[in-house]
Amino acid sequence: MRQSTETARKLDLVVAQPVTDEEIRKRWPLITGKMDGWSTVWNHSAGWVNARGALTQLAQAAQENGARCVDGPQGHVVQLLYDEDGKCIGAKSADGSAHFADIVILAAGAAAATLLDLKGQLVAKGHTVGHIKCTPAEVKKYQEIPIVAHLEGGLLFPPQEDGRTVSLPRYRSDNKDDGVPKPIDDKMRRWLSECFHELAGREWFETRLCWDADNPDLHFLIDKHPNQPGLHLAVGGSAHGFKMMPVIA
Ligand SMILES: Cc1cc2nc3c(=O)[nH]c(=O)nc-3n(C[C@H](O)[C@H](O)[C@H](O)COP(=O)(O)OP(=O)(O)OC[C@H]3O[C@@H](n4cnc5c(N)ncnc54)[C@H](O)[C@@H]3O)c2cc1C
């Protein structure tokens, strides 16, 4: 945290300011949990972005400019294709069809290692997410709560535009099973009660694991493959890749 404050200062960005418990209660009276042992900072320049909307618009713009999107078995790649000189020339899909290109970009997130030996560089991580369904009155009530980001606990978001949900990713939890295991469920609830005590006992509307791939330095790996001509990589979102979208696109 200290390091990122220092970086923001050096880059002349908004620097997060320390806030006391008293200031928190005064400014956001809906935060009723104890927040024991927290040392909290507030950054007014932080915000929430509609990732689904951004990706949909990007896909539309790409199609308007000639891109063709394929999904289902035709879009599910099972194998990269190489010519006899080792140049990557395309991909084979689950329906048996093949797609050829001068440049192939592997951008399969946490699943990238199913298509290419990444020499252990990427680690697939499942991030647990829980949604609570809020009533219309609660949507209104919690509309103005701040995004709460706790590096060990997780992130907590206000209800989203379409709806009625509060989202709670808990970071860095590996788990191969579907659903959310009980200890993680308990931890998510404990964390929720730290901030919004009255919501902590509510049933989850849904829980799931969302996968992303971590690089050792927690930065994207976007580059040509060093040994395989024709193949480029765009992997390793490292749990903070979405915010790079405007830079990458
Ligand atoms: C719960 C959660 C919260 C997050 N919050 C934030 C945040 O607040 N800010 C932020 O900046 N980032 C956040 N992230 C991280 C961000 O979402 C990821 O870093 C980013 O999506 C990674 O982009 P990507 O293109 O590498 O992989 P992905 O977005 O995972 O995209 C990979 C795509 O490849 C497809 N695919 C996989 N295998 C195949 C195959 N064989 N054939 C065809 N297609 C395939 C997948 O279906 C997927 O659509 C969060 C991630 C999670 C899980």
Automatic annotation (TrEMBL):
Keywords: FAD, Flavoprotein, Oxidoreductase. Pfam families: DAO. It comes from the Eukaryota. Its cofactor is FAD. GO terms for molecular function: flavin adenine dinucleotide binding; saccharopine oxidase activity; sarcosine oxidase activity. Gene3D superfamilies: D-Amino Acid Oxidase, subunit A, domain 2, FAD/NAD(P)-binding domain. The keyword Aminoacyl-tRNA synthetase does not apply. Signal peptide: none annotated. Transmembrane segments: none annotated. The keyword Plastid does not apply. InterPro entries: FAD-dep_OxRdtase, FAD/NAD-bd_sf, MTOX. This is FAD dependent oxidoreductase. Residues 11-249 form the FAD dependent oxidoreductase domain. Belongs to the MSOX/MTOX family.
